[in-house]
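Section 5: illustrative case.
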């Protein structure tokens, strides 16, 4: 099946009992068993739920993977992956990454003896130099959050596998519509399904996909043992949202390209970060590695933090809020919102300064979006 068909049908056969076309909400905590060790595939809802199974199968199919596991949030999915590590292990991550991921590495995993090193996202030499005898995995975002740098997944995958390391790719910004890291050599791909996969800003969730059976079985153990699983209604909302993923991503990208071009020519804008612009340093890689450029645009405003605040207060269609990937357009101030957990000196050294804004470009009429930016910047 092609992508637009997969989002509607993969893992979502009509209900075998009733024939219901849409996957039902199995709102139950436990399942009847006919005898010792005899059941219909489900025992307890933390371990498995038919609604959740449908979502896991669907996202796995979209990522061309064999196994999917759903979690209560993107960070819960990340934590499950990090549970593959042991005290004393080391990981390498790109330095431009979500602040919540940095916080998880430093303030949670660090307490248990897991250490992290950070390297320039696009510099393959730095990844190789950072490898230690106790390194176990490499963690990537591509495009990165919030500066939209790209990482050559194939090149880093080759490096990782030469050294016996796992490669993890957070594919939230691109979505499986534009990029499939497993096809490029990654071992594990993860998503905050809160974002594009659900697409309607009404549910929190995460998912992990792999084709490595050994990795899957260990992740499945931690999913059940730790229990950070989504409820069936949240899963059902995500399944409902995923059905329009293909058509939404087309419009997100079309609008984002127009917004990026507008900002790139605006006198009050210092710099625009969008891989779809030919001026972006990773534009050629984006064309080779992705099937499109996505709906995220970041830009640096000329002026001060007070100027930024003034622009934010004037916006009418773009809403100042955290998160991304919904049908509505959002604007985020990374320094005080999504990346506020990163110490200021580290954050600013990486380019997340007070005049940086991140746009999640929605699917509204492009004329309204451009007018809103024009009047706010005027």
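Designed sequence:
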């Amino acid at each position: 099946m092609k992508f637009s068909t997969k989002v509607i049908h993969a893992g979502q056969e009509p209900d075998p009992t009733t024939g219901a076309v849409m996957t039902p909400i199995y709102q139950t905590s436990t399942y009847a068993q006919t005898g010792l060790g005899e059941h219909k595939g489900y025992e307890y809802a933390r371990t498995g739920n038919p609604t959740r199974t449908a979502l896991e199968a669907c996202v796995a199919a979209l990522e061309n993977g064999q196994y999917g596991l759903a979690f209560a949030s993107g960070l819960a999915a990340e934590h499950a992956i990090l549970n593959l590590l042991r005290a004393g292990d080391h990981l390498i991550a790109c330095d431009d990454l979500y602040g919540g991921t940095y916080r998880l590495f430093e303030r949670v995993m660090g307490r248990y003896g897991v250490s992290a090193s950070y390297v320039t996202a696009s510099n393959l030499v730095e990844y190789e130099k950072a490898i230690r005898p106790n390194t176990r995995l490499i963690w990537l975002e591509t495009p990165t959050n919030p500066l939209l740098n790209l990482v050559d997944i194939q090149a880093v995958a080759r490096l990782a596998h030469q050294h016996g390391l796992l490669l993890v790719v957070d594919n939230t910004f691109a979505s499986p519509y534009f990029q499939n890291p497993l096809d490029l050599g990654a071992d594990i791909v993860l998503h905050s399904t809160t974002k594009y996969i659900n697409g309607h800003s009404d549910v929190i969730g995460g998912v992990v996909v792999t084709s490595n059976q050994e990795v899957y079985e260990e992740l499945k153990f931690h999913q059940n043992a730790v229990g950070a699983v989504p409820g069936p209604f949240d899963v059902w909302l995500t399944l409902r949202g995923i059905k329009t993923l293909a058509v939404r991503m087309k419009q997100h990208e079309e609008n984002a390209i127009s917004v990026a071009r507008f900002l790139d020519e605006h006198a009050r804008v210092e710099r625009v970060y969008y891989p779809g612009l030919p001026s972006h340093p990773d534009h050629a890689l984006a064309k080779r590695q992705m099937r499109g450029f996505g709906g995220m645009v970041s830009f640096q405003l000329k002026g001060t933090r007070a100027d930024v605040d003034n622009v934010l207060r004037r916006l009418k269609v773009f809403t100042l809020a955290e998160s991304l990937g919904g049908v509505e357009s959002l604007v985020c101030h990374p320094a005080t919102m999504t990346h506020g957990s990163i110490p200021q000196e580290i954050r600013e050294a990486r380019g997340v300064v007070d005049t940086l804004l991140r746009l999640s470009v929605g699917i509204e009429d492009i004329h309204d979006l451009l007018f809103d930016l024009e009047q706010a910047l005027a």
